[in-house]
DNA sequence: GGTGCATGTCATCGAGCGATGACAGGAGGC
DNA sequence: GCCTCCTGTCATCGCTCGATGACATGCACC
C-alpha cells in the first residue's frame, strides 16, 4: 500500500523540470500578468517546491526573462509579392498569438513592467524591423512600428480586453479588415 | 515656533480631499498599473493617512473604479464630412491621451485586471460605438472595435512600450499615417 | 463657549509574497 | 556496499500590502 498509491513518481530530471516550469510560467504570466503570477503557483502547477524555481532561475524576474524569451519566426519576406504581404503577416500573427502563450505573457507584463517593455522593444528592433525592411523602400522603423501597433492593438482587443466584435471575428474576416491597413503602413 | 513651521495646513474639506485622492490615484495607476499602485502611496501623495482612502472609497478596487471613470467627450460626428472624420478622431485621441492620465491608467490596468477590462468594454459600448454609428452604414460595432484597436495599439506603442518611431512622431505625422487606416475601417 | 459630528490619524492584524539556507533522498561511480 | 553529488523539500524570515476599529482634532452651530 505504501508504494502502490504514490504520486506518479516524477522523474528526477532537472532539464525536464526546468522546461515544465517555463511552460507553466508562460501560461501563468499570459493569464495573470507579471505581478499576479506567483512563484508558488508556477511551482504548484508543476508539482514542485517553490524554492526550486528560485534555485533554477535565480528570481521571479529571471524566470520571467527566460519564459518571455520569444521568437516570432518571421519568414523572409524578400520576393513576396505586395499583394500577398498582409496575408503572410496575418497568418503569422495568428500562429504566434493563438498557438503559444509567450507573446500574450509579454504583452500583459509589458503594460506594467519596464523590463518587459524593454524586451518588447528588442523584439521590434531585432525581428520585426529587419523583416519588414526587406519589403519597404524607406522609413522602415516607422513602418515596422505602425505595423506592430496595429497587430498589438488587435491582439489587445481580442485576447486581453475581449471586445466582442474582435473575439467573434474569424481569421478570414481579420484578414480582410487588417490587410488594407497593413498594406497602407507598408507601402504608401 | 510650534505654530509657524506647520505643514501648509491642509483644509479639512472632504470633497477637496476626495478630488485630490482621485487625481493622485489616476497618476499612480497610469504610471504603475493596478497592482504596483498602493493605497499608501496614493494617500502619501496627498499627505493623508491611508485609512482615509479606505473610508472614502471602500477598497482599492473602489478607488480604481472611481479614478478610471472616464469620459472621452467624443463630439457628435453627424454631418462631419468623410474627409474630415479621421482628423477629428485623431485630434480627440491626443487630447484624451496626453492631457489626462485617466485613459492611460485604464489601459495599463486593463492588461491584468478583469474589472478594468470590463470598464474598457463599457467605454467602447457606451461611447465609441454610438459615436461612430452616426457615420457608418453598417457593422458599427465591428468598425468601432477596429478603430478602437487602432487607437489603443498606437497608444500602447507610444505611451507604454515607448517604441522610438512612435514616440518621435508629431501629431501631424500621426495624423497622416493613421488617417487612411481609420478611413478604411470606417468607410470601406 | 461648550457640544457634537465630520474629518483625519494611529496602532495593528492577518495574509501572502519572494527569497534563503539547512536538510532529505535517490542515482551513479568506485 | 558505500560515498557523493545532484535533485528536490521544509521551515522560516522579513517585508509589504489591504483593511479594521479605536482614537484624536477641528469646525459649525446653538
TrEMBL record, chains A, B:
GO-annotated molecular function: DNA-binding transcription factor activity; transcription cis-regulatory region binding
All residue ranges annotated as the HTH tetR-type domain in the record: 15-75
Record PROSITE patterns: HTH_TETR_2
Instruction: Give the keywords, sorted.
Output: DNA-binding
- The feature table lists the DNA-binding region at 38-57
List the InterPro entries hit by this protein, alphabetically. Answer: Homeodomain-like_sf, HTH-type_TetR-like_transc_reg, HTH_TetR, Tet_transcr_reg_TetR-rel_C_sf, TetR_C_16
Instruction: Kindly provide the name given to this protein in its UniProt entry.
Output: Transcriptional regulator, TetR family
Species assigned in the record: Klenkia taihuensis
Amino acid at each position: 500500500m505504501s508504494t502502490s498509491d504514490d504520486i506518479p513518481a516524477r522523474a528526477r530530471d532537472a532539464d525536464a523540470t526546468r522546461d515544465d516550469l517555463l511552460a507553466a510560467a508562460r501560461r501563468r504570466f499570459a493569464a495573470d500578468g507579471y505581478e499576479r503570477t506567483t512563484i508558488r503557483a508556477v511551482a504548484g502547477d508543476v508539482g514542485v517546491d517553490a524554492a526550486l524555481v528560485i534555485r533554477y532561475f535565480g528570481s521571479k524576474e529571471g524566470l520571467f526573462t527566460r519564459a518571455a524569451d520569444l521568437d516570432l519566426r518571421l519568414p523572409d519576406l524578400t520576393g513576396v509579392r505586395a499583394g500577398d504581404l498582409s496575408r503572410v503577416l496575418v497568418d503569422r500573427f495568428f500562429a504566434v498569438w493563438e498557438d503559444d502563450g509567450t507573446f500574450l505573457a509579454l504583452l500583459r507584463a509589458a503594460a506594467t513592467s519596464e523590463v518587459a517593455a524593454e524586451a518588447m522593444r528588442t523584439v521590434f528592433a531585432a525581428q520585426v524591423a529587419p523583416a519588414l525592411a526587406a519589403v519597404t523602400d524607406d522609413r522602415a522603423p516607422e513602418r515596422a512600428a505602425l505595423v506592430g501597433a496595429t497587430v498589438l492593438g488587435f491582439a489587445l482587443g481580442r485576447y486581453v480586453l475581449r471586445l466582442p466584435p474582435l473575439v467573434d471575428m474569424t481569421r478570414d474576416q481579420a484578414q480582410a479588415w487588417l490587410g488594407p491597413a497593413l498594406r497602407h503602413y507598408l507601402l504608401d
